[in-house]
Design goal:
Number of helices: 17
Largest sheet: 5 strands, parallel
CATH topology of the largest domain: FAD/NAD(P)-binding domain
Structural class: alpha/beta
CATH superfamily of the largest domain: FAD/NAD(P)-binding domain
Strand content: 15-25%
CATH class of the largest domain: Alpha Beta
Shape: globular
Helix content: 25-40%
Distance between the termini: 82 Å
CATH architecture of the largest domain: 3-Layer(bba) Sandwich
Oligomer: single chain
Strand order of the largest sheet: 3-2-1-4-16
Number of strands: 16
Mean pLDDT: 92
């Protein structure tokens, strides 16, 4: 019997075409341009088709990765998108913004010796291929059950929960506080990373499936969770963690200081970069300082650059090794000319006689012993203070839970920081029939982890409501 020739491994990922840095820093068009058919098939050929694929265990929603990658390799892109959508409503989104390098790709068998398979890029390619074909196929939807579920929040967690429940035949209504659905996908992530037309298309699929979306609905003000539960069989809370945090240093109340949430919401959701065509102004400084090192800080810095800033400086208290933003985003930012002041921490923000920001005073930091997070703890270096000229300062040091739902819902258990207490595997809260997941439970995390929580809760909600007695309709008044 003739011996089987071992598969020749291409050691590196197939590069993805991108806009030139000198061009893209002047526009809001997407940076990465996506694979061609030939590039996608070539990259898919790198997959080893492992019998026990560890990559799947790294995906919070359980996408059947080897199967969809094989379909791409075979040129069966329609089958590839069907396989992805068995688990993931938002492949065009996840393919662009999920940190695959710390999830599915991190566990790829190839990564032991070579670059992992570019799973995220292949997911994006497959979703973009479907978009070019038209509206796309609707998933198979079970017969109507007569059960009603309310979803509070239309971010990735709420959308995913709604998708899975709608497929089961339940009547689903989403309540969104803002005037457009999408949550962090529309207000938090810039157009050059995630075009809003792509988010709108994914949300339109839910509408085609019969899901109702009610916008401008602030739960806790318009109606309460208790009132929702009088009308619905179950409720899922996926409101995210969008309350800005500040550093509590002198000068944070000066004109020209923004929270990253406000800055990005004005730009991304309200299109301030197209002012006056869109009537939402934002201060366009020439010298911008962004405080923080996460993806939100990176998005803020790169957005400020595209508004026409002459210089954008990122101030982060640890080194590049500890910087929490995605490596790809850091690479793109440095290509575009963002300046990194590392091992540096703000002390105060300085202003002129009119209350306008004109500089930020910082101190150098020395990295010492490890802290509880496993990272080196930064400590100020005495006498190392210096100033950076600035007319806009953006604070991007994290977010917290909005307390509105906690304050308006008596029987809902929350932590001291107002995050909802919920079971990790089911999303069950202290209230009968009420479930929660995503950032409002865990604190700020990734899009895909929030989606994973939405999937788990949808499964638990389905099992719960199918055991309930038939709901008695109210008599007409």
């Amino acid at each position: 019997m003739e011996a089987k020739t071992p598969k020749k491994i291409v050691p590196t990922k197939t590069p993805i075409p991108e806009q030139d840095p000198a061009v893209r820093r002047m526009n809001f068009d997407e940076v990465a341009l996506g694979y061609s058919v030939e590039q996608a098939v070539l990259e898919a050929s790198r997959c080893l088709q492992c019998k026990k694929p560890s990559c799947v265990s790294g995906c919070p929603v359980g996408v059947p990765i080897p199967r969809f990658v094989k379909a791409v390799h075979d040129g069966d892109f329609g089958r590839a998108i069907e396989l992805i959508k068995e688990a993931n409503l938002l492949p065009a989104v996840c393919g662009r913004v999920c940190p695959q390098e710390s999830q599915c790709e991190k566990l790829c068998t190839l990564s032991k010796k070579f670059d992992p398979v570019a799973i995220g890029r292949l997911e994006r390619f497959t979703a973009d291929w479907e978009r070019r074909q038209g509206d796309g196929k609707l998933p198979e939807i079970a017969a109507a059950t007569g059960r009603r579920v309310a979803i509070v929040g239309s971010g990735p967690s709420g959308l995913t929960c709604a998708y899975d429940l709608a497929k089961q035949g339940h009547e689903v209504t989403i309540y969104e506080a803002l005037h457009e659905p999408g949550g962090v996908l529309v207000y938090g992530i810039p157009e050059f990373r995630l075009p809003k037309a792509i988010v709108a298309r994914e949300i339109n699929l839910l509408k085609r499936m019969g899901v109702t979306i009610i916008t401008n609905a602030v739960i806790g003000k318009l109606i309460t969770i208790d009132e929702i539960m009088q009308e619905f069989d179950a409720c899922y809370i996926g409101t995210g963690a969008g309350l800005p945090r500040f550093m509590h240093i002198p000068g944070e109340n000066l004109n020209g200081v923004y929270s990253a949430n406000e800055f990005l919401t004005r730009i991304n959701l309200m299109r301030a970069y197209q002012f006056p065509e869109y009537d939402t102004p934002v201060k366009k400084g020439s010298r911008i300082v962004v405080v923080g090192g996460g993806n939100v800080a990176m998005d803020s810095a790169r957005t400020a650059l595209r508004l026409g800033a002459e210089s954008v400086t990122m101030v982060y208290r640890r080194s590049l090794t500890e910087l929490p933003a995605r490596k790809e985003e850091v690479h793109h930012a440095r290509e575009e000319g963002i300046v990194f002041e590392l091992c540096t921490n703000p002390v105060r923000i300085l202003g002129d006689k009119d209350g306008l920001v004109n500089a930020i005073e910082c101190v150098r930091m020395d990295l010492c012993e490890l802290d509880e997070s496993g990272r080196k703890k930064p400590k100020p270096v005495p006498g190392s203070e210096f100033t950076i000229p600035a007319d806009v300062v953006i604070i991007a040091v994290g977010t917290g839970a909005n307390p509105l739902i906690a304050q308006s819902t008596k029987n809902l258990s929350v932590t001291k920081h107002k995050y909802i207490v919920a079971d990790e595997e089911t999303g069950k809260t202290s209230m009968q029939g009420v479930y929660a997941g995503g950032d409002i439970v865990t604190g700020a995390a990734t899009v895909i982890s929030a989606m994973g929580a939405g999937r788990k809760a949808a499964k638990a909600i389905h099992e719960y409501i199918m055991k309930l007695p038939a709901r008695r309709e109210k008599a007409p008044v």
